[in-house]
Design goal:
DNA binding; about 60% helix; 2 domains; AAA family ATPase; elongated; Zinc Finger, Delta Prime, domain 3; single chain; MgsA_C; mainly alpha; DNA_pol3_clamp-load_cplx_C
Amino acid sequence: MDVTMPPDPWQKVRTYHDIPADEVISGLQKSLRRGAAETALLLGYEMFLTSEALEQKLWARLQVIPVEDVGLGEPMLPVLIETLFQQHLRVAWPSPERFLFAAHAIRLIARAPKDRTSDDMAGFARLELVARNRTPEVPDYAIDMHTRRGIEMGRGYDHFLTEASHVENELPERDTSFRDRLQAAIAAGELR
């Protein structure tokens, strides 16, 4: 599997201080990975100063990085970054106040514990399904009342409750009273 990147249109753009834009974008992400907040901040502001289009690219990276590089290190970070993104839209570019939201996002990402497992998982999926042409298997427990084959096999609500809706890592204090009532209704013939 070829992992070379296609040509990037930002390779042809120069920033406010005449730096190749693709290098500024790359520097932003690599600095955030290393927790280098000041470097990331200055590169982010360089993007903001250059153009509204490059500011949009800044936000595109700031929205991906929390998933790609932070992951479970700070699982709610994508939600916070999306909120900051929405808030920045209320301030017209190039108002300096607009950059406050990006600065805060940069600060949050830089200081967050890092976990690149989600990106590793995505790369592994591409490797298996594309490079190795592996066909994923649908497990038997997924063949239930929501699939044609499950219906043909007569798998109804009872099968769904006992097999298809089974969860691992369930909360110990989970309230099962409603599930118990549903199973009683199945036993009484009220549900199928």
